[in-house]
Amino acid sequence: MRRLSLHLLALVCGIASAVSPAAVQAREVTREVESFPIRLMSPAAGATLTAGSTVTLEWAPLGELEEAEEWEAFLSLDDGKTYPLRITPHLDLDLHRVEWRVPAVATPAARLLLRFGDEREEETAVRLPQRFAIVAPAVTPPADDLALARVA
Fold first, then answer.
1. pLDDT for residue 35
2. Which of 16, 4, 1, 57 is nearest to 148 (CA)?
3. Which phi and psi (to 5°) does residue 32 adopt?
4. Pairwise CA distance, residues 33 & 3, whole Å
5. For residue 97, how far is the Cα from the chain centroid?
6. What confidence tens digit (pLDDT) does each residue in 81-135 have?
7. CB 117 within 8 A of CB 33
8. Which end of the chain, N or C, is less surrounded by CB atoms within 10 Å?
9. Mind listing the pLDDT tens digit for each residue in 26-52?
10. Helices (H) and strands (E) in the chain, counts
11. HEC readout, 15-60
């Protein structure tokens, strides 16, 4: 519960957690896989997202998720080399759709990593193959709205 409270506080304050494969390995037992029984519904591969906009992150299970109880999402701005931005807190496995604010960083090669687990033992990190772009907004988003994710 304390961990969830800290993640929610970080979201409210606009603080992002840095995650690299090395940091994931050091923090807990995690296995990385390229294939997992889920399908990314949104954002679509090849989509262009506008920095500061609110978009939907949605995935669908395609089978059993190996005793996972929760999930979380991270964003890569360098085609999956690192995942420096946490875009969700730990979320219940029954929740497959969230709204999140696209960070104000332009990139032609954004990717998502979803991490599934039970927060006590092994977790599985899924590097999703879909790539999308983030472009600068025509108008700067308001500075008073710092939330990165909202439950849809």
1. 63
2. 16
3. -95, 135
4. 25
5. 11
6. 999 999 999 999 999 999 999 999 999 999 999 999 887 776 888 899 999 999 9
7. no
8. N
9. 344 466 666 678 899 999 999 999 999
10. 2, 12
11. CCCCECHHHHHHHCCEEEECCCCEEEEECCCCCEEECCCEEEEEEE
- Look up residue 128 and give its two tokens: 């999703």
**CA atoms of 129 and 111, how far apart (whole Å):** 7
Q: Which long-range contacts (CB under 8 A, 24 or more apart) does 33-39 make?
A: 33/124, 33/125, 33/126, 33/127, 34/126, 34/127, 34/129, 36/65, 36/114, 36/116, 36/124, 36/126, 37/61, 37/62, 37/63, 37/64, 37/65, 38/62, 38/65, 38/114, 38/126
Element (H, E) at 4: helix 2-13
3-state secondary structure (DSSP) of residue 8: helix
**Predicted local confidence at residue 10, as pLDDT:** 41
Residue 96 is predicted with a pLDDT of 94
> Within a 10 A sphere around the Cβ of 64, how many other Cβ atoms?
8
